TrEMBL record:
InterPro entries: Cation-dep_OMT (IPR050362), SAM-dependent_MTases_sf (IPR029063), SAM_O-MeTrfase (IPR002935). GO terms for biological process: methylation. Keywords: Methyltransferase, S-adenosyl-L-methionine, Transferase. Residues 1-87 are annotated as: Disordered. Gene3D superfamilies: Vaccinia Virus protein VP39 (3.40.50.150). This is Catechol-O-methyltransferase domain containing 1. Belongs to the class I-like SAM-binding methyltransferase superfamily. Cation-dependent O-methyltransferase family. Coiled coil: none annotated. GO terms for molecular function: O-methyltransferase activity; S-adenosylmethionine-dependent methyltransferase activity. It comes from the Eukaryota.
Length: 347
């Protein structure tokens, strides 16, 4: 599961940003996309209007109405004391106990299944949102109303991306704005994005860069970027975005081999989670001292608290988090924004 929001769940009108990503869905989407791509099929599909995705947001509320155990015990004891013993009992235990036990069994099995399918329910984030503050929370709307200054074409791209079922992979708009502000603060000229999608954040960074600035935008799937490209152009910054369609490790290696180590100011890592450590190490070599790397999804909707053995994406992020807190090459701040973003400052 990705901490995600139902597509079409728009409590704040069409301006509500798409929920950001939760990578199990991403991974599922990617693997589906890859197999579809391998079969020569178009992997970009528009949502059917009005049709909601099956997803965690649709999980019925838990609550098999079991009475508290103490009450059940009291009732059982009362029954035992007052009921005459039947001549030929159908059950070797009182019926209430048998029914109660069966209900407990059902509740336990349901809990296990729900926990497997929707781990966030077990890990304390009862709302299946990617964001720390749920996107249906009035506080989220308040944050946007009182901080978001979004370029009109950036907003257009966000709303366009949000129309697609995979649009929830898009970075959170408040987080994109923070990164753009950092880019301006450090007067960045060269930046990298690992994982572009339609380029919401690539566009946000391009808008923050000077006219001779450059975004090296790495993705394996050009179909997403094709949706965003006309808007990069409309915003007049397409000349700053250098899209490289191939595995990001390959692009980063090419930059290193081309003598561009220590020449970048900023990097944003937001692609396949299993490769995050590799992306981090390569980006660390590519950015200058004083440069910044932003690493997305570091909280994985709370699942980093107890990564499942079979959830390699969360395991990978958790290991990187453990490494970063001790990494003497950098200073860091882990920020509970979006799905958690760690800012890494190269020393
Ligand atoms: C979460 S989305 C990126 C969102 C984007 N940063 C934004 O501004 O909204 C992840 C992207 O990573 C890309 N991706 C996945 N594996 C990749 C790889 N090995 N190399 C490059 N890109 C990859 C996917 O195609 C997808 O577009």
């Amino acid at each position: 599961m990705r901490c995600s929001q139902k597509t079409g769940h728009r409590p704040f009108s069409t301006d509500t940003p798409s929920d950001t990503r939760f990578t199990r869905e991403k991974t599922q989407h990617l693997s589906t996309s890859r197999s579809r791509a391998a079969r020569g099929m178009n992997v970009i599909q528009k949502p059917r209007p009005g049709r909601e995705e099956a997803g965690p947001g649709r999980l019925a509320p838990r609550g098999g109405q079991l009475r508290p155990t103490s009450l059940r015990r009291g009732r059982t004891a009362q029954l035992a004391a007052t009921s005459p013993r039947p001549e030929m009992p159908l059950f070797s235990v009182p019926k209430e106990v048998a029914v109660g036990t069966a209900m407990l069994g059902v509740a336990f099995a349901t809990g296990l299944l729900a926990g497997k399918r929707y781990p966030s329910l077990l890990f304390g984030t009862s709302k299946p949102h990617k964001s720390i503050i749920g996107k249906s929370s009035p506080l989220w709307q308040y944050i946007l109303d009182h901080s978001l200054r979004e370029h009109p074409i950036l907003k257009k791209l966000r709303l366009l991306t949000a129309e697609y079922p995979w649009g929830k992979m898009m970075v959170s708009c408040d987080q994109a704005q923070l990164m753009a502000n950092l880019i301006k603060l450090i007067k960045a000229k060269k930046v990298i994005e690992v994982g572009v999608l339609t380029g919401y954040n690539a566009l946000s960074m391009a808008l923050a860069l000077p006219d001779n600035g450059r975004v090296i935008a790495c993705d394996i799937n050009e179909d997403y970027a094709k949706i965003g490209k006309p808007l990069w152009k409309e915003a007049g910054v397409d000349h700053k975005i250098d899209l490289r369609i191939k595995p990001a490790t390959q692009t980063l290696d090419e930059l290193l081999a081309g003598g561009e180590a220590e020449t970048f100011d900023f990097a944003f890592i937001d692609a396949d989670k299993e490769s995050y450590n590799e992306y981090y190490e390569k980006c660390l070599r590519l950015i200058k001292k004083g440069g910044i790397i932003a690493i997305d999804n570091v909280l994985r909707c709370g699942m980093v608290l107890k990564p499942r053995k079979d959830d390699l994406a969360t395991q990978s992020i958790h290991h990187l988090n453990e490494k970063l807190v001790r990494d003497a090459r950098v200073n860091i701040s882990m920020i509970p924004m979006g799905d958690g973003v760690t800012l890494v400052f190269k020393l």
